[in-house]
Amino acid sequence: MIEDGAEVVDGRVAGEQGESGEAASPREVCWRGRGVAFAPLDVDDAELIHVWRSDPVAAHEIGIWPRSLSAVRERIERDRDEHDRDDFLVLLPDGTPIGHIALTDQDMVDGTAEIMLLLDPDHRGRGHGTDAVDALVDLAFGELPMHRVQAVTHTTNTGALGVLARAGFVQEGVRRSACLHRGRRYDVAVLALLRDEWREFTRPRSWDVLITGQ
């Protein structure tokens, strides 16, 4: 987990207030990229995650199913104690939370990990997904000793495939009929980005850019 150099941004959802009627506390930013920032995922974020997971488009494209709020909270609490994953809330420059991104199944010996991303339905199709993935792979290759970062998604999930392609991921193959969701079998695309490929990118790295919202 990256803990040094934390900064504070206004982490409120529009109109969100605390129990006293005052604005919610700012979120500590632990990583930043082009147009987005990451804050460590907290148990108090369970309600947001629950809403995003309940979106029918996300449930269909990602192959997830809605869980109860208490189950989501328990899952976040359990994942916090896992040493092979890092979970973050994706924030806009004004602190608005727009998604959940994670680097999971981290193997420090082999240098491998898998990326997971879930965006707020209201903020899809605006480039935020690519910005978030770019920032996470910069973390994986620039701060962690990863050699290969993998992503998997349904072959019909054109939005996710586009995000990953723009972030430099290469499709390696298809696991045929590998996912059962709502009584139907789905093929799953396997994509990956290698450290040497990341080194060839000409875009600024996360530590070279400020959050400008542009």
Descriptive key words:
214 residues; single chain; 6 helices; alpha+beta
What is the element layout, followed by pairings?
Blueprint lengths: L6 E3 L17 E3 L1 E2 L4 E4 L5 H8 L2 H8 L5 H12 L5 E6 L5 E11 L4 E8 L8 H15 L5 E7 L3 H9 L3 E12 L2 E11 H5 L15
Parallel strand pairs: 7-8
Antiparallel strand pairs: 1-2, 3-4, 4-5, 5-6, 6-7, 8-10, 9-10
Helix pairs in contact: 1-3
Give a brief rundown of this model.
This protein is α+β, with helices and mostly antiparallel strands and 214 residues long. The chain has helices spanning 46-53, 56-63, 69-80, 128-142, 158-166, 195-199, and strands spanning 7-9, 27-29, 31-32, 37-40, 86-91, 97-107, 112-119, 148-154, 170-181, 184-194. The two termini are 28 Å apart.
Protein architecture, described:
With 214 residues, this protein is of the alpha+beta class. It is built from 6 helices and 10 strands, in the order E-E-E-E-H-H-H-E-E-E-H-E-H-E-E-H. The strands form 2 sheets. Strands 3-4-5-6-7-8-10-9 form an 8-stranded mixed sheet, sandwiched between helices. Helix 1 packs across helix 3. The longest helix is centred in the middle third of the chain and has 15 residues, at 128-142. It is globular, with a radius of gyration of 17 Å. 30% of the residues are buried.
